[in-house]
Amino acid sequence: MSNAADTSDDNGMRDTIAEGESTPKANTDSATEAEGSVKDGAGEKKCGKGEEHQCKDWWCLCKEHISAQSRLFLKGGRIVNDDHSFDADVYIEDGIIKQVGNNLVIPGGSRTIDARGKLIIPGGIDTHTHMQLPFMGTFAVDDFYSGTKAALAGGTTMIIDFVLDQKNVSLLEAYDKWRSWADGKVCCDYALHVGVTWWSDQVAKEMEVLCKEKGVNSFKVFLAYKDVFMLDDHEVYQTFMKCRELGAIGMVHAENGHLIAEKSQEMIDNGITGPEGHEMCRPEEVEAEATLRAITIAHQANCPLYVVHVMSKSAAKVVTAARRRGNVVFGEPIAASLGTDGTHYWNKCWRHGAGHVMGPPLRPDPSTPGYLMDLLANNDLQVTGTDNCTFNADQKALGKDDFRKIPNGVNGVEDRMSIIWEKGVACGKMDPCRFVAVTSTNAAKIFNIYPQKGRIAVGSDADIVVWDPKATRTISAKTHHQAVDFNIFEGMTCHGVPDYVITNGHVVLDEGQLRVTQGMGRYIPTPCNSEIAFSRIRERERTCQPCKVERDPYDGPVAKIDGNMLDVITKSSNPILSADAGSDKFNSHSRPATSSGGRNLHDSSFSLSGAQYDDRQVRKASTRSLNPPGGKSEGIW
């Protein structure tokens, strides 16, 4: 775990990164030092004006400003939590909210931020990111530094990334790799989900270690990406059973990988090689079928299920119906599915179409974003992520002749909060309280970090956004803070932007000026047995145990069969076909015949070889008919 105090660059100087031309950069090799500033013996920049000066530059690291950064007073705003909103002030000290209310008595040396006319909301939590993910032979261009910096610029103060390595790689080794990538780079707090891409006793043991010792409480399985990440249904069931045992949440990427493999080859065979083929081989029903299958498996394992990136109406309907049946399932639409659609795949510009390629794909039905937003507003869907996994034009061009080779992924971590406000609150579909719920609080509750995160309350972490609902901004790849050279929301004007962003008590966005410290973020352990996910699960476990029927032993006759056929039938996945598989007498493609040789004519005898049940019967070459042409009549009866 790292923080601002122990992170330095090659020159031993504090690596404070500054954005914006109008203010000096705190510390880079090429930056010009601010007038009158000096460096102390440890390499940290001091104001040079003496410890008692009254400097007005908030970025200054003199003693007065270090004190002011640890003491913040937000005055005159309206606090918005998921359950209610009210007018009050907030006092922050040492990264923790210390006071909430009116007429607060605060110590001297505090920095006051005027929040009049603004909303004071919990910092956003992006539940779904893939920073610097190794995928399809390349790496996502947004790493844990540029990705979390962009997140803060948009009002997100915590991300939950995915540990996702190849099959047969130790989960613990993969976890350590992701921690080593993230700890020295993150600008905001983060947690980790872990992907289960293969199954064995070793994986089960490592899941237990991750839960009990590493602060992981969620594991993701794939029903897609055949031969890469995909598990078979029985492996998914075993994974979810282990999750239930550990008090962890099962997560799923829901698409039918077998169908996608077949359909994508059909597209190539038909000469469809562009980005439109990506959506055409992964239609809505492929996502909906896998969503239902995952929900069914999770329900049989009595495991709470989190469906990542709900992209279509069909999949959303499946999640909604399951929740109304009482299944413990959560649905996560993402900024992309809420803010744009899949018509872009048919754009004449290949780069434009490829820039939108992700899995599952955006849907070409332009009414899909509004439909998903309606469900999100009404709690049929619960949280929002981004699936932020970005690749530049030259990386996307790996699939210029075959859409299957286009690296899947889009942006969203910086724009998520504004997109949801614009499409939800500004359009009248949800109120600010619901906005807070779907961007922060529900995620904190599901992943068991509430009320440390996701709430403005005494004792909570000072991850806070001062939100200006009246301000606007236009999204563009030319002005965003991400490393990627494309933005799927290009040109969209959003009402509602962050004015100030505070992470762990540090102001990192000040009236549009972004200054972050590389490595200042912390790893946040996520404890198991989340109340919102497991309260019903535990009750069902207690009250719905299967029980046998007490009855007298059977004392009648028992049929005799050859050898150990009973054991074969018991172990077979298809005991009906195994019952007499070696018999020449009744070799049928469907159910075996009766002892007298009869068949159920409603049974199918279809065979790929064209063989029929009675192929072995001796047939006469011809049969003489004594009837006249057209047949003869014998009367009605």
Question: How would you explain this protein's 3D organization?
Answer:
The chain is of the alpha/beta class and 637 residues long. It has a domain at 119-541: Metal-dependent hydrolases (TIM Barrel, Alpha-Beta Barrel). The protein is 28% helix and 17% strand. It has 18 helices and 23 strands. The protein has an 8-stranded mixed beta sheet with strand order 1-23-22-21-20-10-5-6. A 7-stranded parallel beta sheet has the order 11-14-15-16-17-18-19. Strand 21 (493-503) and strand 22 (506-510) form a beta hairpin. The longest helix is centred in the middle third of the chain and has 17 residues, at 284-300. The model is unreliable at 1-56 and 579-588 (pLDDT under 50).
How would a crystallographer describe the biggest sheet? 8 strands, mixed
The order of strands across the largest sheet is 1-23-22-21-20-10-5-6
Q: How many beta strands in the DSSP annotation?
A: 23
What percentage of amino acids are in beta strands? 15-25%
CATH architecture of the domain at 119-541: Alpha-Beta Barrel
CATH topology of the domain at 119-541: TIM Barrel
Structural class: alpha/beta
Q: Unreliable segments (pLDDT under 50, ≥5 consecutive)?
A: 1-56, 579-588
Could you state the oligomeric state of the chains shown? single chain
Helix content: 25-40%
DSSP helix count? 18
- What does the radius of gyration come to? 31 Å
CATH superfamily of the domain at 119-541: Metal-dependent hydrolases
CATH class (first level) name of the domain at 119-541:
Alpha Beta
Shape: globular
First and last CA, distance: 94 Å
Average pLDDT number: 87
